[in-house]
Design goal:
The complex is a heterodimer of chains A (310) and B (311).
Chain A: H1 2-21, E1 35-38, H2 44-52, E2 70-71, H3 74-83, E3 87-92, E4 101-102, E5 104-105, H4 112-116, E6 123-130, H5 139-152, H6 155-163, E7 167-168, H7 175-178, E8 193-198, H8 203-213, E9 221-226, H9 229-234, E10 249-252, E11 267-279, E12 287-288, H10 290-298, H11 304-308
Parallel strand pairs in A: 1-2, 1-3, 5-12, 8-9, 8-10
Antiparallel strand pairs in A: 3-11, 4-11, 6-10, 6-11, 7-11
Helix pairs in contact in A: 6-8
Chain B: H1 2-46, H2 57-62, E1 67-68, E2 76-77, H3 80-111, H4 114-128, H5 132-153, H6 164-188, H7 192-200, H8 205-216, H9 218-234, H10 237-242, H11 261-266, H12 274-305
Antiparallel strand pairs in B: 1-2
Helix pairs in contact in B: 1-12, 3-4, 3-6, 3-9, 4-6, 5-6, 6-9, 7-8, 9-12
The chains are: A alpha/beta (310), B mainly alpha (311).
């Protein structure tokens, strides 16, 4: 009995040790299956990715995807790609680091420069939405919200956006050029609270923007509460616009849906966010096309051989 | 004298009403939460969900694919396979954590020298108070890699380690301290005379510990198991980090990706609207029923197992 126990113990400990140190050194085995990682159907990144690779029907439909895909969030997919040699996933360009390999898309490297010059194709818009004109708790809040949106389109605004890893739209005016149009910014607004919300993908960018703009506009107080793209419209002009979570400025990291059409002139784009397909650093693959990615995600390619032998 | 008694009585009454008030407060919160979840969760089954049509309860409870068709345009939700997964995972994690937990408890309560027992008890309490996200991060950082390499060792290509096994390991780790702490109390409260009787009859310490002490404490150990299984059934954050969040199943292979009721509720909760949002509350109702039924059954079993006069 005792011997048996000892034997079992020895076997398990050997197994555990081997498993801990067993990272194979044999290089990339192309006969292995591709493990597909994706975001959840409600994710804006997924929407941007699927539409970007011409597989729009998969943006909110799991049943068209290959069997046995793994669903996880941005960070979890990034970490998974440091472990899983045979996985493929996608993340925001801003999250990309050198622990994984970011794939070129249609031959264009995933860099900020390539998004600005509009050669890198895999990207999604960052949009804002304001409350309907006149539907603010104070005229000061409305004026500041409008000034904020004007600021987004200045070179000062785009500098802040670029600093945060997103890619700003083209702009030519500086804030100094246009600030005369916004008298509210000459007043002391330290008692005015502006509430920002919506997409959490945009949170970092939005916080940096409000932090940069507040000193330029009477030191208004910015409150950020980012809970997801759907809340961007819902909490400014939708069902929760008068609730406890009501916002002055909402954001969405995807195009607004038909059901989210607001009052004219209250919605617009502030930046691009690029999405990048990632694999393990040991993977032989360096570049993919939209077609490749579609074939991987739809299950037409099941092993790495299928893709690399093309 | 008389006034003194009256004063005491009044104080007594005041204290009693304070207790009553706080009881009512905590009890009413539970009722409010249940009512809120039931009201939200029942809407997909009684309204037409903005034109999508009523969700069929039968297919919802028995189906094997979470959502057929496009999100926001389909009402074909199902949790049947997820119920199976959830119970399967809770059972497996208990299978791991119960023996280890009980043996640890036995060691702390009966075998370890006093100083060491004290020290170990503190550690167990500390482990029990670690928030689940920390276990989740540990799981996704260490256990996923471990499982991925383990699978490779067996010649299986796992999905980055996201699997039933990883989930079970994380949950076993999380329930271990609860099970240890509760069964340790049960073991300690076994009456000394039973133990001494056994020793006096010539049984060895080990025989006494296993055949008398554990047998006498089995009711308390069962209570520990019930608490443990409750924690595994209800854990969301840590599970969703290591499960792989399968969308169809049931998933019974140890290296298959999986999903549980709670992790399904959590996925995309913050980014969704309409029926896709409400349906998560329906999953919540299912979860509450599953937990209630499990507890009910386990309690019935516990009564039948019986106990030897243990406090």
């Amino acid at each position: 009995m005792k011997k048996l126990l000892l034997l079992a113990l020895a076997i398990t400990s050997v197994g555990v040790l081997a498993a801990c140190g067993g990272n194979s050194e044999e290089g990339f085995d192309t006969s292995k299956n591709i493990t597909v990682y994706t975001r959840d159907t409600s994710s804006g990144t997924r929407d941007g990715f699927m539409n970007g690779i011409g597989f729009g029907e998969a943006s909110a439909d799991d049943s068209v995807l290959v069997d046995g895909f793994v669903t996880n969030d941005n960070t979890a997919i990034l970490t998974a790609m440091t472990t899983d040699e045979y996985g493929i996933g996608y993340i925001s360009l801003a999250s990309l680091n050198n622990t994984v390999k970011g794939l070129s898309f249609d031959g264009v490297e995933p860099t900020v420069q390539n998004v600005i010059n509009n050669t890198y194709g895999l990207k999604r818009p960052f949009n804002y939405v304001l409350r309907a004109p006149g539907d603010y708790d104070s005229p000061e809040a409305e004026a500041i919200a409008n000034a904020f949106v004007a600021f987004l389109r200045t070179t000062d605004g785009s500098d802040v956006i670029m600093d945060q890893g997103a890619v700003a739209l083209e702009s030519s005016d500086t804030w100094d050029d246009i600030k005369a149009d916004y008298e509210i910014c000459n007043e002391d607004n330290s008692g005015v609270v502006i509430r920002f919300g919506g997409s959490d993908s945009i949170q970092k960018v939005a916080e940096a923007l409000s932090a940069a703009f507040s000193p330029k506009c009477g030191d208004f107080v910015a409150e950020h509460d980012h809970t997801g793209s759907s809340d961007g419209f819902k909490r400014t002009q939708g069902s929760e616009k008068d609730g406890d979570n009501a916002k002055h400025v909402g954001f969405a990291s995807r195009p607004f849906k038909d059901t989210e059409a607001g009052v004219e002139g209250t919605q617009g784009q502030l930046a691009w966010d690029a999405i990048v397909a990632i694999v393990h650093v040991n993977n032989d693959l360096d570049s993919v096309t939209a077609e490749d990615l579609k074939k991987i995600y739809s299950g037409e390619y099941t092993t790495w051989e299928d893709l690399l032998s093309e | 004298m008389n006034t003194n008694t009256r004063k005491k009585k009044r104080v007594d009454q005041i204290v009693r009403s304070i207790f009553l008030a706080s009881t009512l407060l905590s009890a009413s919160f539970i009722i409010i939460i249940v009512i809120f979840i039931v009201m939200k969760g029942i809407t997909p089954f009684i309204t037409d969900n903005d034109g999508l049509g009523v969700v069929n309860i039968w297919t919802f409870l028995t189906g094997t694919v979470w959502l057929q068709g496009t999100a926001f345009q389909s009402n074909l939700y199902a949790v049947g396979f997820i119920i199976v997964n959830t119970l399967y995972i809770a059972f497996l994690s208990l299978l791991l954590s119960l023996p280890v937990g009980v043996l640890t408890a036995l060691f702390i309560a009966k075998i370890a020298p006093k100083r060491l027992a004290e020290f170990l008890r503190t550690i167990v309490e500390l482990l029990a108070s670690i928030p689940s996200i920390v276990y989740g991060l540990f799981g996704s950082g260490i256990i996923l890699t471990f499982v991925y390499n383990l699978a490779e060792l067996f010649g299986v290509q796992s999905k980055g380690g996201n699997s039933v096994l990883a989930t079970v390991l994380v949950l076993a780790l999380m329930t271990l301290p609860t099970i240890t702490a509760v069964s340790e109390v049960a073991i300690r409260s076994v009456r000394k005379d039973i133990e001494e009787g056994s020793l006096a009859l010539g049984a060895t310490r080990t025989q006494t510990n296993f055949k008398v002490v554990l047998a006498s404490a089995k009711s308390g150990i069962f209570a520990a198991a019930i608490l443990g299984i409750g924690r595994s059934l209800g854990e969301a954050t840590a599970v969703s980090l290591v499960a792989g969040n399968a969308k169809s199943g049931p998933n019974l292979g140890l290296f298959d990706i999986t999903t549980t009721l709670t992790s399904t509720m959590l996925q995309g909760l913050k980014e969704t609207t309409g029926v896709d949002y409400d349906i998560r509350f329906s999953v919540g109702i299912v979860l509450m029923i599953v937990i209630l039924l499990t507890n009910f059954i386990l309690n019935a079993v516990k009564k039948r197992v019986g106990n030897v006069n243990v406090k």
